Queue: 2 jobs
Job 1
Amino acid sequence: MSAAKDHGIPTPPKDLQLPGSVAENRASPPGPKVGAFFDMDGTLVAGFTAVILTQERLRRRDMGVGELLSMVQAGLNHRLGRLEFEDLISKASEALRGRMLTDLEEIGERLFAQRIESRIYPEMRELVRAHVARGHTVVLSSSALTIQVNPVARFLGIDNTLTNKFVVNEDGLFTGEVVEPILWGPGKAAAVQRFAAEHDIDLKDSYFYADGDEDVALMYLVGNPRPTNPEGKMAAVAKRRGWPVLEFSSRGSVGIRPQVRTLAGIGSMFPVVAGALGVGLLTLSRRRGVNFFTSTFPQTLLGANGVSLNVIGKEHLRAQRPAVFIFNHRNQVDPIIAGALVRDNWVAVAKKELQKDPIVGTLGN
């Protein structure tokens, strides 16, 4: 008999049933009346799948510079509260008018295998499995689109999804519209309530995992709110209400602030391009306009993202010209850093395929 038991002190269990832990779920009431609702971006998946989808469209030259800059500006305005999510997703849908649904579904499946599967939090995968093992009704509820959500749900063994969908005509082509009501904020909360009523789910015994401010209202609807990697309003409300917070770093940080800073940096391309055009027209010199862009935009982009360069041997950058500068192109940031260092009066030598790139090709012509 243990000393703890001799003194009337209960022996603690081997697996502490902490809120949000697998052990807690294993001890929860079983059966389908308990719902487990999971957000996707930033919760199940580190990062934002829409960004990965946009990158793929750029790589496939399926998006022009004009559309890219328009979407960047719209995304930034949304983050700053100047554009509603409904308007943002409608803008994205309009850009895909006339596209085949099967084409984008194929892209979604391929991107999941190549880029997204490795971004799924292993901790969240175990939590999903724990809920499934208890017979709970597990739902992936996301404001993303089916082409992003379905591969993730299938991989995790989640049978139920609540997600936004594009309107498709009888020929399988996008019409440029989104099925209403759009799932976002109150619309998403209403969809969860409808689903719960239709499937006889008791929300008082249910769980909700999410990171975004727009899902705070939905946290109040369930008996077991579980903010996951929260920031901003969600983090503040969780602290005030005493909600258990789940934070995972196994797939890197995915906070919204870095995303906003990145959008702000990319969005600075608009005024910089306008300035470059102005300089070029006023001086009747294409080179001076290009110099304005190459010396301003890299610095602005790095500064917006909090990047400062500590250069050893900085004096050699302009000690002698003409000169050849070579950098080890190991990631997408290296060209930006090289441009920020060399600044102006330079031309680039690159592989021929980049001539067709919607951004690099346009700047290089």
Job 2
Amino acid sequence: MPEHRSPVVVPEHFRKFLVTDDFDRYGLVPGQPTPTPQYLQVELTDLCNLACAGCLRAVHESSGRHLSLETFVALLDQLPDLGHVSFVGGGEALIVRDFAAYVQACTDRSVFTSTNTNGLLVRRRLEPVLDAGLGLIAISVDGADDATLGRMRSGLRLSQLSTALREAAALTEGRETGLSAAVTLSSANLEQFPAIVDFVADHGLTRISVESLHHWGEDKTLNAESLFALQVQDVVPQLEAGLARADERAVELSIFDYSRLGSPAAANAVCPWPWDASYITKDGDVTPCCVHMESSPGNVLGNIHEAPMAEIWASKPYRSLRDSFTEGPAWSSCEGCVYRMEFGRV
């Protein structure tokens, strides 16, 4: 007999924190891709100054290569309707010395930009990027004590993270750039969620985004530590304790609809990515999403050095991938995808 799971009911006062799904969040319709990508996640480099437990850099070495500015500008010019570029990948974007030039190229074309960072280079590298018009910077905050943070973030100390948050708050003050904390929860740090909210709020940040740890491509090892792999009755009280702290501290927090933790239907959710978004690697490979940030023969849909992005977007491989989600994912790497369970259309 299958295990009976009682449905999770989200209290009304916590519903304001929920992202129902990415189709609602971004105005998408399953089965109706946008004419060209509206959102690109771009990996400028695979170099990083950390090798975090939840990142593929912990198990796969960096190549040291980066996406050239010339290639990036040519890509922008192919997509006049592009709305958002997120400089997030298997590396730390602030390592790229001319990162500001990439942001400026977007600003000149009225394209919103964002990036995530571990915070170590905020003091030395962030200001010119802000001057170039960066729209949002998110700093990863995955622990509230040295032991937990060190496990999650490759030995990063709380004092270093504290300095990064304070520096980022000072540098963004008076600017239009948004500042947020990005929290990835798993079995390793779930109990610290309320303390993490307090830590963020104590540093003057008022925005937090929350996701579960998830796998990378065909390597699904990390899924065993995701929130969806844990017992629902153990996860929900911890999540709601953190949401209660966000409520008390007046923090603008976003999290997936965690009633999905008790819903078998979540496993068959339609992926939101291929309808308006793509991931571009440092080598110009196009994959469908950030879960496939390390390209392999099985997940590459094209390469921007070999074909225009609009052509790749409308290609047979992309159409086949989209069609597969009406019957179940065609790619084994998409099966059991935690991001799809969090933000897909159930």
